[in-house]
Amino acid sequence: MATQLEQRVRFDRIRYANCWEDPALLCAALEPAPGKRILSIASGGDNALALLAAGADVVAADLSRAQLACVELKCLAIRRLGYEEALAFLGIRPSQTRVKVYHGMRRDLSGPGRDFWDWRLDPIDAGIIHAGKFEDYFRLFRTRALPFVHGRRTVARLLQEKDRAAREEFYERAWNTLRWRLLFRIFFSRFVMGRLGRDPEFFRHVEGSVADRILARARHALTVLPTHNNPYLDYILTGNFTRTVPPYLEPGRFDILKQRLDCLTLHRGTVEEAAQRHRGPGFDGFNLSDIFEYLDEETADSVYGHLLDTAKPGARFAYWNMLVPRSCPPALAARIRARRELAAELFRKDRAFFYNAFVVEEVVRT
Predict the structure, then answer these.
(1) Cα 311 from Cα 272, distance rounded (Å)
(2) For position 104, what pLDDT does the model report?
(3) How far apart are CA 240 and CA 242, in angstroms?
(4) What is the dihedral of CA 121, 127, 132, 138, to 10 degrees?
(5) Residues of the chain with pLDDT under 70
(6) Nearest residue to 273 via CA among 265, 264, 284
(7) Residue 60, strand partner residues
(8) Domain boundaries in the chain?
(9) Under a CB-based contact definition with an 8 Å cutoff, are residues 13 and 44 in contact?
(10) pTM for the full predicted model
(11) Mind listing the pLDDT tens digit for each residue in 2-58?
């Protein structure tokens, strides 16, 4: 996988400063607990930290040194700072002293972590949760595009607490205008999203309309699910976590993380390399984000097989399909049981609305 992606995708900047996947689904699917070991895609670190806070030991892997530097600095803030201080340093609360705070604790970063951040003090000053390319994409959407469709009062009304019937009425009466649908189809098209948000290479294996599929999921998030406590919707529409912090930063989890950060291992490289290097007694769970749809089918099947070889009996795979359907390779089907009902039940509750499916699969034979 490394050769295939590293030759086509740039990994020299933070692409995701936050994880845009709901860790509630992962925790319900993988059932992290003391004594369990989980292999996770690192990305922005949020989901790996949520699994860690739930009691599991976590190995977080990423090809990108930028993503790993992001995770490492988040961990350092949690380790060294109090709760409100950490929220301020990360960018959720206002602060004028982030660079000063960074210089006071930078010596505790790894060499690669210091090398990365010492040359990037501006994103530290702005708050590192705002430092990703995907977050820049949402900033453009919020500040340049959305105002042509909905004003601040309408946005505020969308985010107010309402029951489902009221949410559906508001969506159809006030939000779902022709301008909204037109804007959405342009801004979340393959062309715009590939150049301003995700890397164009991540759409290599996608067929059909990207925007239409995301629009259908957005409607679900704005009507079926509560809008007042959705951290992903909050960030997209306001530019920060103003109502609900990401799950790993909830006060109870924050205190647990302070004590458990030594149970997190960061690995730069592919997820299958991380699985082999840190195999130990095997893994009880795999958080694989949506990596399979970045790959051609043959490579995706190969990666799946390598991971399966490091799994314990009963281990679970959890991953998302955004636009490309991927699941257990047919050649490995005898070793895996698809947990379709569980996955569908969890997916209906998914607050991060960019994905088209959630997959949970359980190892029945290693």
Answers:
(1) 11
(2) 98
(3) 6
(4) -140
(5) 1-11, 190-191, 194-210
(6) 265
(7) 40, 266
(8) 2-65+246-363, 133-238
(9) no
(10) 0.93
(11) 455 454 455 578 999 999 999 999 999 999 999 999 999 999 999 999 999 999 999
Q: Which CATH superfamily is domain 2-65+246-363 in?
A: Vaccinia Virus protein VP39 (3.40.50.150)
Contact yes or no for 227/162 (Cβ under 8 A) = yes
Is there a contact between 324 and 208 (Cβ–Cβ < 8 Å)? Answer: no
Q: Which amino acid is at 61?
A: A
Burial 150-168, CB ≥16 within 10 A → b, else e:
beeeebeebbeebeeeebb
Instruction: Decide if 42 contacts 49 (C-beta within 8 A).
Output: no
Residues in the chain: 366
Task: Tell me the C-alpha distance between 281 and 284, whole Å.
Answer: 9
Q: What is the pLDDT of residue 10?
A: 54
Taking alpha carbons only, the member of 85, 75, 83 closest to residue 108 is 75
Structure token pair of residue 268: 């730069």
Buried b vs exposed e over 91-100: b needs ≥16 C-beta within 10 Å?
bbeebeebee
Exposed/middle/buried for 308, CB within 10 Å: 0-12, 13-18, 19+?
buried
DSSP collapsed to 3 states, the chain: CHHHHHCCCCCCCCCCCCCCCCHHHHHHHHCCCCCCEEEEECCCCHHHHHHHHCCCEEEEEECCHHHHHHHHHHHHHHHHCCHHHHHHHHCCCCCCCHHHHHHHHHHHCCHHHHHHHHCCHHHHHHCHHHCCHHHHHHHHHHHHHHHHCCCHHHHHHHCCCCCHHHHHHHHHHHHCCHHHHHHHHHHCCHHHHHHHHCCHHHHCCCCCCHHHHHHHHHHHHHHCCCCCCCHHHHHHHHCCCCCCCCHHHCHHHHHHHHHHHHHEEEEECCHHHHHHHCCCCCEEEEECCCHHHHCCHHHHHHHHHHHHCCEEEEEEEEEEECCCCCCCCHHHHHHEEECHHHHHHHHCCCCCCCCCEEEEEEECCC
CA distance 194 to 190: 6
